């Protein structure tokens, strides 16, 4: 028989044992004690309207950065290098051509008034791998064979036709004052070096012509053009398009008449082949 005045306290069930946790508001939350295995396997739960709801994983959304794209409408006399310079296109005319090749076509020298060009169409920086691929595969515009001095041929891939100082009654001076390149109408004509356009317009027997004052003080003349790509006072870079060949003025067929002069005027011509060679250009 148990001793008098002593009572046997019932042993609490294992699953009913609990611990009390007091929050900042003083409320107690009783949580059942779990075994080690159950504690690791259980997922955290959130309480919504008194019911336990399993917490859903939060998906991370990638932020999409919008790239602003401006456009430029080609005007008469425009060329890619001038547009790229005026519109501050990073990467210059090559990048402008690359971004708008589907609009321009295979020849970057032939752009037409009314065409809309995207400026900064690929503004987002490419990954290093893509950048390396682009550098290797980008289709470049036709380049002049530029010497280390920055000088180049006025037209690409064409041999000289009529040479300098050839005598003949067909010329008012009694001899040919420049050199001729037999190229079809619409061929791109390049500035042989950096300079400033002294004049651009009608030149009488020379038809449409462009005269560029080069950095060393000499003048380069381009005659019989079908189109002018520059205007007087404009600064040009070596290799920049100044116009398209044609058959305007006194001619028997399309070609480029090219002169080097000591002044912008007729009669001050010097040997253009010797001049270009002196600037490192292989010609003739």
Which structural class matches the secondary elements? Answer: alpha+beta
Q: Please tell me the CATH architecture of the domain at 179-278 by its name.
A: Distorted Sandwich
* Helix fraction by DSSP (H/I, runs of at least 4): 10-25%
**Computed CA radius of gyration, to the nearest angstrom:** 40 Å
Strand portion: 25-35%
State the end-to-end CA separation.
133 Å
Which spans have pLDDT < 50 for at least 5 consecutive residues? 15-48, 58-64, 122-144
- CATH C-level category of the domain at 179-278: Mainly Beta
CATH level-four homologous superfamily name of the domain at 179-278:
Glucose Permease (Domain IIA)
* Topology order in helix (H) and strand (E) letters: EEHEEEHHHEHEEEEEEEEEH
Structural topology:
Blueprint: E1 18-22, E2 28-32, H1 36-41, E3 45-48, E4 51-54, E5 70-73, H2 80-86, H3 92-99, H4 101-104, E6 116-119, H5 128-137, E7 179-181, E8 188-190, E9 195-202, E10 208-214, E11 219-228, E12 235-236, E13 241-245, E14 256-261, E15 269-270, H6 272-278
Antiparallel strand pairs: 1-2, 3-4, 5-6, 7-14, 8-13, 9-10, 9-12, 10-11, 11-13, 11-14, 14-15
Helix pairs in contact: 2-3
């Amino acid at each position: 028989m148990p001793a008098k005045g002593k009572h046997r306290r019932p042993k609490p069930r294992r699953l009913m044992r609990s611990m009390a946790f007091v929050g900042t508001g003083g409320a107690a939350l009783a949580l059942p004690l779990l075994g080690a295995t159950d504690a690791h396997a259980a997922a955290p739960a959130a309480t919504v309207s008194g019911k336990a709801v399993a917490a859903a994983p939060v998906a991370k959304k990638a932020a999409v950065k919008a790239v602003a794209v401006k456009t430029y409408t080609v005007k008469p006399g425009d060329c890619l290098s001038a547009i790229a310079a005026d519109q501050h296109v990073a990467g210059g005319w090559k990048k402008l051509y690359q971004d708008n090749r589907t609009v321009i076509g295979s020849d970057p020298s032939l752009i037409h008034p009314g065409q809309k060009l995207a400026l900064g169409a690929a503004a987002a920086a490419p990954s290093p791998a893509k950048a390396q691929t682009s550098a290797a595969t980008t289709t470049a515009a036709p380049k002049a064979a530029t010497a280390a001095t920055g000088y180049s041929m006025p037209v690409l891939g064409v041999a000289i036709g009529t040479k300098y100082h050839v005598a003949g009654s067909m010329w008012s001076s009694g001899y040919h004052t420049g050199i001729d390149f037999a190229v079809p109408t619409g061929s791109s004509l390049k500035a042989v070096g950096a300079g400033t356009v002294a004049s651009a317009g009608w030149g009488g027997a020379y038809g449409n012509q462009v005269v560029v004052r080069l950095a060393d003080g000499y003048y380069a003349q381009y005659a019989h053009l079908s189109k002018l790509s520059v205007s007087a006072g404009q600064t040009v870079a070596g290799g920049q398009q100044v116009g398209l060949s044609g058959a305007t003025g006194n001619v028997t067929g399309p070609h480029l008449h090219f002169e080097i002069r000591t002044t912008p005027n007729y009669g001050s011509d010097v040997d253009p082949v010797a001049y270009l060679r002196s600037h490192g250009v292989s010609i003739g």
